[in-house]
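Reopening this one. Same input as before:
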Amino acid sequence: MSTPSAHTGAHTDRTAATGLRLMALHAHPDDESSKGAATYARYVSEGHEVLVVTCTGGEMGSVLNPAMDRPEIRDNITEVRIAEMASAADILGVQHKWLGFLDSGLPEGDPRPPVPEGSFALVPVEEAVVPVVEVIRQFRPHVLVTYDENGGYPHPDHIQNHIVSIRAWDLAADPAYRPELGAPWEIKKMYYTHGFIRRRLLTIHQDYLDRGAPSPLVEALSFWKTEGGDTFDRVTTRVTCGDFFDKRDDALRSHATQIDPNGPFFAVPRSVQRRLWPTEEFELARSRVPVNLPETDLFAGIDSESE
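Same output, byte for byte:
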C-alpha cells in the first residue's frame, strides 16, 4: 500500500447528524469531483453525511495541466495530490478517507504493458475488500456509489473498484465475516455513477447550433467512441443538483495537476448547463428496499429513521 495520510475533510459529528449517509468509493483523487460531486454537495447541504473513500493515492497519474507540469510537482506528486484532495473535500463539505492502495496507472501501448507489481488492480479481491468492509461497518452508509463493470472507463483501478464494491456489499452485511471489523451493516442501495453521458454533450452541442453559436464541444464529441452505446440508456436515477455546479467545478479545479482550467470540462458556462441539463445521473445496481423507477433521489425508499 501507499501511504497518503488520512484526511477526514469536513467531519460531521455523528451524534449531531440527523440525515442519512452516503459513501462514495472512488479509485483516485479527482474521481469524486468529476463523478457525482454536485450530488454529494447537495446532500451535505440537506444535512446528510457523505463520505468519499479513495482507494489509491493517484501516484501514477500524469500531470495533465500544462501550468502544473514542473519538476517540483512531478517529484512530489503524492504529497501534491493529498493536498488537492483535502481542498476538494473541504469545498464539497464531505468527509474523506484514504485506503492507501498503490495507483496502478493506465497502461498504454500496443501491446499494453503490465500494471506495476503490488498496485491496486493486482491486489487479490479478498484482500482489497477488507478495509472497504471495515469502513462500511464504521460509517454505516445507507447508499453506496461506485462504478459499473466497465469502471466508467476501462482503467484497471476503476474495474477493481467495481469488483471490490460488489464483494463488500455482501460481506459487510455478513455477521460471520471478520467480526473484528465491526458489527455487520446492510447497505440499502448501491448505485453506479455515470458521469460521462454522450446525450448530455449532444444536447448542449445542439443548443449552441440552434442559437447559431460555435459549439465548444466539437472536439470532445469527435473523440467519443459510439460503438459501446450511450450509458444514458442505463440511467435509473437523475438527481437535480444544478445549484451545486459551482462547488463541483471548484472542487475539480482543486485537483490542479489533473485538470486544465482552460480545458473542455469548463468550456460550457454553468448557466447553460443548469438550463439544459441540471442533473447528475446514476444507475441503481442493487437494492434491499422497494424501489419505484425512475427516481430523482438516491435515498428514495429509505426510511429516514434508519440507524
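So the earlier flakiness isn't reproducible anymore. For the record, Residues 28 and 58 are 5 Å apart (CA to CA).
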